[in-house]
Amino acid sequence: MASVNFTPNIQRHVACPATQARGSTVREVLENVFAENPPARSYVLDDQGGLRKHMTIFVDGRAINDRTRLSDPVGLASTIYVFQALSGG
Q1: What are the structural domain ranges in the chain?
Q2: 26 in Cβ contact with 72 (< 8 Å)
Q3: Do residues 3 and 16 touch, judged by C-beta distance below 8 A?
Q4: Burial label, 51 (beta-carbon count in 10 A; 0-12, 13-18, 19+)
Q5: pLDDT tens by residue, 47-63
Q6: In this structure, are residues 46 and 34 in contact, taking their beta carbons and an 8 Å threshold?
Q7: How far is Cα 70 from Cα 58, in angstroms, rounded to an integer?
Q8: Which residues, at least 6 apart from 46, have a Cβ–Cβ distance to it below 8 Å?
Q9: Rounded CA gap, 88 and 18, in Å?
């Protein structure tokens, strides 16, 4: 199963403990995570199910390419990090 980690700044807004989930794509893994944690879904994904504008996801140290369908592949031992982009000056 893939390991899924949400950064501390996301966890200030919605509880998202580190977890493990099955799936061969980012979408499948996240759907399994969100099945156990529905409030996290609306924080990470937009109304159409794509990644929100100010969020980013890394799989095994690489930013995903498909922000809409979340079809990037995930291996059995992959590590996924979900980040909220920070802005300001």
Answers
A1: 2-84
A2: yes
A3: no
A4: buried
A5: 999 999 999 999 999 99
A6: no
A7: 11
A8: 52, 53
A9: 27
Specify the amino acid at residue 29.
V
DSSP 60: T
CATH fold, domain 2-84, is: Ubiquitin-like (UB roll) (3.10.20)
For residue range 31-49, list pLDDT tens digits in order.
999 999 999 999 999 999 9
Residue 14 DSSP symbol: S
Centre a 10 Å sphere on the Cβ of residue 62 and count the other Cβ atoms it contains. 9
> How far apart, in whole angstroms, are the C-alpha atoms of residue 59 and residue 61?
5
DSSP type of residue 26: H
Task: Output 23 or 12, whichever has higher pLDDT.
Answer: 23
Alpha-helical runs (H) found in the chain? 8-11, 26-36, 38-44
Residue type, 86: L
